[in-house]
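Final report, closing paragraph on structural work. Over the funding period we assembled a curated collection of sequence-structure pairs, and we close with a single example.
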Amino acid sequence: MQQSTKAHIYVVIATIFIAGSFLASYKLSSTIDAISLTLYRFVLALIFLSPLVIFNKNRVKAVPKFLPKAMVISLFYSLYFIGMFKALEYTTVLNTGSIYTLVPLMTAILCIFFFKEKIVLKQLFVYILGIISTCVVVFNADFSLFLSLSLNRGDIVFLIASFSMALYPIFIKLLYSKKDELLVLVFATLFGGVIWMSLTMQILNISYEWDKLELNHYYSLLYLIVGTTIITLFLYQKATLVLGAKKMMAYIYLNPAIVTIIMFLFEGQTISFGVLGGILLSAFATIIILRQKS
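Its predicted structure, as stored:
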């Protein structure tokens, strides 16, 4: 199997894991502060990976070498989560869902400056199609909901967070190489994330309250730690080095569609014909972007 084919499979798996995280996060909502919960995820994920690094001398020696790079990459990764949670204090999930559709276009524009890539008119049309089709899914094909959309303070915060997410794969491509050991990179990235999230907790004076989590919460938390944090970091960092930032971020258009399908399968929510059309258009836009040459 070709390396590029494997990379596409990695991103698809990661996208499914991330889509499932919305349901897992919903089950954990209102237990403790979302930023505290994210820090707890990073800490436990780091503990999970620690034996694989600590008991290997070469990996232990490599961590300090990669840590400065990881601090930069984990900064953008952490800023996205911090911005998202702070934004949701002032805005709605629908607003953030619609703004998030801008990330692939943001990434493509950033690739012009960082990698001298171009956006032709045809590509721009496909990005717009991806934004529209994803919004159809996000707003449940209800045009009146879309018309009622109005930007507020939280939307500006999430716009900055989305820009940070667009920078995340850019800097993976810039700072990491295919020769680097992926396990060490993920470990260093998580370590950097723990530092940034801990600083945020102190600056915003947020209580940890990890003792409030009950046994039944840990099933969802385990999914977020293993699936959405460890495995997704592995898959995204591996795929980005092969595909590049632009193609990796194109899969974002599939995210609301997969969330809708998961909610249909596990929560019994219905899918209207309008939403189904949006899902098909999202898939179409993603495929066209992936077929474009860098």
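The longest helix spans residues 57-87. The two ends are 21 Å apart (CA to CA). We thank the funder for supporting this effort.
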